[in-house]
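Good morning C.,

I know you're traveling, so I'll keep this short. The sequence:
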Amino acid sequence: MAAGRDYYALETRARRDGYVLRDCEGRVPFGGSADPPGDDQRERGPEMLQSTVVNGRVLKAWQDGVPDFDVRLSDDAGRYLCDFTYYTSLLEFWRRGPEGERPVVFLHVPGGFAEEDLVRGREVVVALIRALVEDGKRGSGKAV
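The tokens, ready to paste straight into the viewer:
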């Protein structure tokens, strides 16, 4: 959830480093990195990773599916738990093959718990899933 936003944002990329905000227990993830250097000799992931399923066609189809709602792409998931979670999910696919698909999405939703907020959120998410599925059927998959 992205408190303070009044729109839905489909994130396009996530960053490895620069996490300085503390979580509810006062901790910063792995010293500020979603993929810290370690003793296990594995290669660190790149500084930034992008989804291979988020693109302009998906955005257009998503917007067409919910024309009365503000839905958009974002290239800043915020260097907090959301960005961290998105990066580590993308990293899992990158480690399987750096040039391969990374079919991962992260959606920031505005705050709100009233019934109309939940109904609107369901419509937006269903439209996004439809847009992703239809685009996947076309065999696309290049990041924005």
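Safe travels,
E.
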